[in-house]
């Protein structure tokens, strides 16, 4: 049971606006200004995440399970500021008129938690407050990083998964985007979401624990000149929210096929060609998938083998990787 306590509310000049169908921010954070449709996203509330007078990303939030379905954002390559470590909640999801975010610390569930998680939900849960839209992708200003620290952008994330393989994937996608999607006119659209295929939860059933985290990347070259307009690419990534997780790298046209026909809408180029799912250059996308897969045996690319053989190879490669680290890698903590 949650008990009511007297709360001193400190309001920051941070705004998080409820915006049906993302009407106030869909032009900023979705490829070709088109919001994807995913199955099974009931009880959702669309939020345009606003700090000061600037929108930073968009979140489709599950008010029943108190976790986001996904956050959509764009990647920048500016110099990073300091990490922000405080958390916010959204008073509007508690029926409050004030659109400003409030610091989440000590906000009780009785007042604020009917449709969203509060900070106490995660305390002593053994799960991390896992960002969908990560701080490290937002280096424009300190405010851009602060805006990611609302609990409407957070879901319970396995600590080992979060700090090892998922963090590695986030770093690799940043570097890959810097290498292959930093040409003039390129735009980098990301959607990161969760899948919840079990009833596991924390905080006495208040907050659902996702079974998987996923990210879809679109390097949009539709706005560049003719010579490099075909340089765009896309791919999808899926990892189980568990210890010793693998990351499955997917060709975008097959990614989350049970949930949506496409995450990135069709685009007709100047010659009348239809570009599906932001896949301007499939060869480049396949090469990027190969390059990412080569960085770690836990990154599994699609191959035309039986499922049994794929699982065997993944386990064998991961075992070899661990043995190599244990036997041949020098200790750095001695």
Biggest β-sheet: strands ordered side by side in the sheet: 5-6-1-2-3-4-9-12-13-14-17
CATH class: Alpha Beta
CATH hierarchy: architecture: 3-Layer(aba) Sandwich
Report the count of strand segments: 17
Measure the end-to-end span: 46 Å
Instruction: Compute the number of helices.
Output: 7
Which fold name fills CATH's third level, the topology?
Answer: Extracellular Endonuclease, Chain A
How many domain modules? 1
The amount of beta strand, in percent, is: 25-35%
Helix fraction by DSSP (H/I, runs of at least 4): 10-25%
Cα-based radius of gyration, to the nearest Å? 20 Å
The CATH superfamily turns out to be Extracellular Endonuclease, subunit A
Given as residue ranges, the uncertain stretches (5+ residues, pLDDT < 50) are 1-14, 323-334
Round the mean pLDDT to the nearest integer and report it: 84
Report the principal-axis shape.
globular
Largest sheet, strands/sense/barrel? 11 strands, mixed
What is the gist of this entry?
By secondary structure, the protein is α+β, with helices and mostly antiparallel strands.
Report what the structure shows.
The model is unreliable at 1-14 and 323-334 (pLDDT under 50). The protein has 334 residues and is of the alpha+beta class. The protein starts with 10 loop residues before the first strand and ends in a 6-residue tail after the last helix. It has an 11-stranded mixed β-sheet with strand order 5-6-1-2-3-4-9-12-13-14-17. A two-stranded antiparallel ribbon has the order 7-8. A two-stranded antiparallel ribbon has the order 10-11. Strand 10 (201-202) and strand 11 (207-208) form a beta hairpin. Helices cover 22% and strands 27% of the residues. 42% of the residues are buried. The chain has a single domain, classed as Extracellular Endonuclease, Chain A, CATH 3.40.570.10. The radius of gyration is 20 Å and the shape is globular.
């Amino acid at each position: 049971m949650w008990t009511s306590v007297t709360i001193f509310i400190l309001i920051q000049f941070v705004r998080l606006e409820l915006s049906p169908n993302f009407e106030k921010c869909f032009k900023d954070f979705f490829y070709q200004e088109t919001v994807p449709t995913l199955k099974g996203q009931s009880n959702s509330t669309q939020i345009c995440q606003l700090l000061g007078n600037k929108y930073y990303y968009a979140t489709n939030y599950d008010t029943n399970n108190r976790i986001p379905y996904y956050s959509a954002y764009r990647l920048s390559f500016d110099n990073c500021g300091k990490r922000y470590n405080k958390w916010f909640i959204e008073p509007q999801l508690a029926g409050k008129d004030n659109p400003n975010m409030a610091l989440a610390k000590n906000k009780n569930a009785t007042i604020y938690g009917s449709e969203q998680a509060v900070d106490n939900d995660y305390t002593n849960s053994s799960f991390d407050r896992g960002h969908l839209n990560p701080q490290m992708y937002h280096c424009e200003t300190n405010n851009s990083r602060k805006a990611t620290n609302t609990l409407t952008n957070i879901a319970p994330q396995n600590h080992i998964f979060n700090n090892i393989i998922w963090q590695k994937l986030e770093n690799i996608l940043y570097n890959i985007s810097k290498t292959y999607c930093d040409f003039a006119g390129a735009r980098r659209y990301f959607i990161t979401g969760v899948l919840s295929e079990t009833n596991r939860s924390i905080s006495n059933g208040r907050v659902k624990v996702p079974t998987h985290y996923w990210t879809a990347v679109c390097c949009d070259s539709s706005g560049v000149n003719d010579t490099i307009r075909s340089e765009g690419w896309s791919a999808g990534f899926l990892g189980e929210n568990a210890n010793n997780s693998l990351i499955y790298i997917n060709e975008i046209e097959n990614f989350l096929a049970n949930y949506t026909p496409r995450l990135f809408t069709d685009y007709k180029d100047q010659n009348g060609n239809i570009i599906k799912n932001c896949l301007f250059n499939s060869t480049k996308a396949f090469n990027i998938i190969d390059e990412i897969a080569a960085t770690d045996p836990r990154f599994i690319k699609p191959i035309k083998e039986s499922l049994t053989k794929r699982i065997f190879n993944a386990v064998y490669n991961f075992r070899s990787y661990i043995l190599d680290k244990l036997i041949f890698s020098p200790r750095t903590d001695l």
